[in-house]
Amino acid sequence: MQNNVVISGAGLWNPENSISNEELVTSYNAYAALYNKQYAAEIDAGERVEKPFSSAEFIEKASGIKSRYAFVKEGILDPERMRPVLEEREDDALSHQAEMAINAAKIALQEANKTPDQIDAVIVSCAYTQRSYPAIAIEVQHALGIEGFGFDMLVACSAATFALHRAYEMVAAGTARAVLVINPELTSPQVNYMDRDSHFIFGDVATATILEQESSCNSEHAYRILGVKAQTSYSNNIRSNFGYLSRVTDTDPYSADKLFHQNGRKVFKEVCPMAAQHITDHVAATGNTNSDIRRWWLHQANINMNTLIGKKLLGREPSADEAPIVLDEYANTASAGSLIAFNKSHKDLAKGDKGVICSFGAGYSIGSLVIEKI
Fold it and tell me: What backbone torsions phi and psi does residue 257 show, to the nearest 5 degrees?
């Protein structure tokens, strides 16, 4: 027991603002109509491509998404803006992402029955951070009054699981008593709301998780980590080229290729079998079989991906109880998706029940944890 590492607390924070498919489609279609009218002559001449229109039904069928949360809603639905209006804060004010992170962290601390003085390290892991330095994690550490150290991690949609791996290793090695991992996924600034194929995909949210030694754990719901596994394989099929080099390459720092873009068909075809095999191998490495797993908290990118992966894992379509889906309410929240599912559906498990937390996405990257309720 002395060397066992457990998840002792989890937190989920939602922004106040939600955007339905219907709202998003109304805004996008109004933008598309304005665009097509403005460039009608060039479109007719074959010099530009006409913007296609969208529908709420198309979005739900293609993704399973019905709505998403937005840290700031203003501006997103304006056909003449199509991006959120986020006010820049002074250097000595709390940053937007730190605000999100702290909201989730406080919930996780309460769930774990931990105080800031019992945490030795903070990891902020997400798809994007709003600045390069100082690290958001160090800002959060300071705001919460945590001694020790903090750092940021960027591994796209696998950032959360990869950070949990690092936290697991710290606690197992004894370099930290407890580690707070936070995923403040502020994705909306990187969404291209002018692109029919991707404007609906992402939502904003923050999750937080605390890992510690089993011997120090006194929370009501805790999970022994039976194993961690990570895998990466280089791919250009999911990409964002935003970065500081735009200043010296003299390119538009906000052009379409600098925002999120993907080849969805290739991602679906290549990632699904990779993820299913990764998970099956990982479960086997812990001395279990897929039939021993009570619950699957899978990455929430697309309902069709989850269904196919579930079928590969179980030989049949998993039930909503076995593999909870949160896409309908949250959309794709980058690395936070599997942990939203965990937050919303873990307290009903019985002692000895096993589960898998798994993320998969850009990179390609896949990260997983096999856990058992204690």
Answer: -75, -15
Q: Give the number of other CB atoms < 10 A from CB of residue 255.
A: 12
pLDDT tier at 1, thresholds 50, 70, 90 = very low
What residue ranges in the chain does DSSP mark as E strands? 5-13, 17-20, 67-70, 121-126, 149-154, 178-185, 205-213, 223-232, 238-239, 261-262, 293-298, 354-361, 365-373
Q: For 223-272, write each residue's pLDDT tens digit.
A: 999 999 999 999 999 999 999 999 999 999 999 999 999 998 999 999 99
> Would residue 157 show up in a list of annotated catalytic residues for this protein?
yes
Half-sphere exposure (CA, 13 Å, Cβ side) for 368? Answer: 27
Catalytic site residue from 157, 217, 272, 358: 157
Structure tokens at 256: 């379409």
pTM for the model stands at 0.96
Residue 158 neighbours by CB under 8 Å, 6+ apart:
230, 335, 359, 360, 361, 363, 365, 366, 367
